[in-house]
Design brief:
Blueprint (H helix, E strand, L loop, with lengths): L14 H7 L6 H15 L6 H12 L4 H12 L3 H21 L1
Length: 101
Amino acid sequence: MNAEVESPKLEKTDATAQVQNAVKPTNPAAVRKAIALGKDMRKVPDTSKADVARKMFETIADEPREVIVQAFVDGAGLTPKGAQTYFYNCKRRAGKAAQAG
């Protein structure tokens, strides 16, 4: 008697599902501009994803976290987990700059 055990299937969430559930940007034009900027910067040789994310963050720093993370995914070519890390680093760097200046 062969009893097959069925393992529970994990549902995959893709980028489009995350976008549909995402918070709306407060300034959609700025977000589109930041994504376009990120795509353009990625074409430049010797430009790191961190450089791209920092420049994008300057443009959309006032947006909600979810919006910025999704913009990093779309514009800088980061994974969702990587985008969260870059968001944290950009936010921390901006906080230090505000304290120093």
